């Protein structure tokens, strides 16, 4: 994740090995300028704005299906190494918890 002009963005920096995924996997189901781009380095989080308590009003791409969702993100109040990521389609949503990688 990185900030640019007061907005939050994110790229894929690491892919856990998974059966059936090629070593240099590409986003074959993505559209536009992301079509067939390598997953590593792919900018999947774009344009989130800070509202004082969470990042909101951005987009996230699911490289598994190529779909783009409205997204918001916030740190877990009990564990700052966990980031809650919620993607929306209309009133329906799915929340994932991303964990910070430590060395």
Walk me through what this model shows.
The protein has strands spanning 2-4, 7-11, 43-50, 55-62, 67-76, 79-89, 92-99. It is globular and about 40 Å long. The model has no long low-confidence stretch (mean pLDDT 92). The chain has one domain: Lipocalin. Strands 1-2-3-4-5-6-7 form a seven-stranded antiparallel beta sheet, with no helix packed on it. By secondary structure, the chain is mostly beta strands.
Topology:
Elements: E1 2-4, E2 7-11, E3 43-50, E4 55-62, E5 67-76, E6 79-89, E7 92-99
Antiparallel strand pairs: 1-2, 2-3, 3-4, 4-5, 5-6, 6-7
Tell me what the CATH architecture is. Answer: Beta Barrel
The span between the termini is 17 Å
Number of helical regions? 0
Mean of all residue-level pLDDT scores: 92
Strand order of the largest sheet: 1-2-3-4-5-6-7
- Bin the strand percentage: over 45%
Structural class by sheet pairing and helices: mainly beta
CATH top level assignment = Mainly Beta
**Number of spatially distinct domains:** 1
Biggest pleated-sheet summary: 7 strands, antiparallel
Oligomeric category? single chain
List keywords for this structure.
seven-stranded antiparallel sheet; 7 strands; 103 residues; mainly beta
Question: What's the short version?
Answer:
By secondary structure, this protein is mainly beta. It contains no helices and seven strands.
């Amino acid at each position: 994740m990185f900030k640019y002009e007061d907005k939050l963005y994110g790229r894929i920096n690491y892919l856990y090995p998974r059966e059936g995924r090629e070593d240099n996997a590409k986003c074959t189901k993505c559209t536009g300028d992301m079509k067939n781009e390598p997953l590593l380095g792919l900018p999947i989080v774009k344009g989130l704005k800070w509202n004082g308590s969470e990042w909101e009003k951005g987009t996230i791409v699911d490289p598994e299906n190529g779909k783009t969702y409205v997204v918001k993100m916030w740190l877990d109040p009990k564990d700052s190494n966990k980031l809650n990521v919620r993607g929306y389609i209309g009133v329906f949503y799915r929340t994932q918890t991303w964990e910070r990688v430590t060395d």
